[in-house]
């Protein structure tokens, strides 16, 4: 995680969970993260099993130029990335993974901006899986929030093991222009000696930034 908003929300979530896989959804107190609320959102599963927005902060909605409540989360992404994003959100829901996605966004007017997204699991019980997320702009262009984002493309993905390393600056896994199938991804990670499993996911370790 590189953006302060991402780090602050992660640290709050990590304190709440107190060694558990995830904090309960009712433990999140908006007043505790009031400075982050505009950039945060909550996803839930709909009847079809899709990840949809239950709540979305004002700045998140302004960034995409629409009210996001009820909107299918993977549909915000470029078509080639939707299956990957759906698979990642499912891992947060079901495996209690912590996922960081770096991505590039293109606006209606053709402007571009890099953003960072963090997905954090919440314990809502078997009948009500939820996750907490935050979107942070890596730059603060004057037009963001006025010129809506219409397309987003994944640049890299990082899976964090909060039990082993609460905060990390390790390099992310870069996603190639055409996302390979799951078998190809597993084959590639198995070829790297530093790969390890976190709740049925593979984490690639890299060098630390001193």
What does this structure look like?
The protein is of the alpha+beta class and 210 residues long. Helices cover 21% and strands 30% of the residues. It has four helices and nine strands; from the N terminus they run αββααβββββαββ. It has helices at 4-17, 58-64, 82-95, 182-190, and strands at residues 40-45, 51-56, 98-107, 112-122, 130-137, 149-160, 173-174, 195-198, 201-204. The strands form two sheets. A seven-stranded antiparallel sheet has the order 2-1-5-4-3-6-7, sandwiched between helices. Strands 8-9 form a two-stranded antiparallel sheet. It is globular, with a radius of gyration of 16 Å. The model is unreliable at 168-210 (pLDDT under 50).
Salient structural properties:
210 residues; 7-stranded antiparallel beta sheet; 21% helix; 9 strands; alpha+beta; globular; two-stranded antiparallel ribbon; disordered C terminus; single chain
Overview in brief:
This protein has 210 residues and is an alpha+beta fold. It has 4 helices and 9 strands, in the order H-E-E-H-H-E-E-E-E-E-H-E-E.
The count of helical stretches stands at 4
Low-confidence regions: 168-210
Radius of gyration: 16 Å
Ends: how far apart?
Answer: 15 Å
Q: What structural class should be given to the helix and strand makeup?
A: alpha+beta
Largest sheet: 7 strands, antiparallel
How much helix, percentage-wise, in residues? Answer: 10-25%
Overall residue-averaged pLDDT value: 83
Shape annotation: globular
Write out the strand line-up for the largest beta sheet, numbering strands in chain order.
2-1-5-4-3-6-7
SSE order, one letter for each helix or strand: HEEHHEEEEEHEE
Count the strands?
Answer: 9
- The fraction of residues in strands falls at 25-35%
């Amino acid at each position: 995680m590189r953006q302060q908003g991402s780090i602050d929300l992660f640290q709050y979530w990590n304190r709440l969970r107190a060694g558990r896989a995830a904090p309960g959804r009712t433990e999140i107190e908006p007043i505790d993260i009031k400075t982050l609320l505009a950039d945060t959102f909550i996803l839930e599963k709909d009847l079809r099993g899709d990840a949809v927005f239950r709540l979305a902060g004002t700045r998140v909605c302004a960034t995409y130029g629409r009210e996001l409540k009820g909107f299918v989360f993977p549909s915000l992404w470029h078509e080639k990335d939707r299956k990957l994003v759906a698979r990642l959100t499912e891992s947060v829901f079901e495996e209690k993974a912590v996922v960081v996605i770096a991505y590039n966004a293109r606006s209606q007017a053709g402007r571009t901006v890099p953003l960072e997204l963090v997905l954090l699991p919440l314990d809502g019980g078997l009948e009500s899986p939820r996750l907490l997320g935050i979107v942070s702009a890596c730059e603060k262009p004057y037009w963001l929030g006025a010129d809506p984002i219409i397309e987003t493309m994944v640049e890299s993905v990082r899976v964090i093991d909060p039990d082993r390393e609460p905060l990390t600056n390790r390099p992310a896994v870069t996603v190639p222009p055409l996302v390979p199938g799951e078998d190809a991804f597993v084959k590639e990670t198995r070829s790297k000696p530093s790969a390890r499993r976190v709740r049925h996911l593979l984490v690639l370790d890299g060098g630390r930034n001193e």
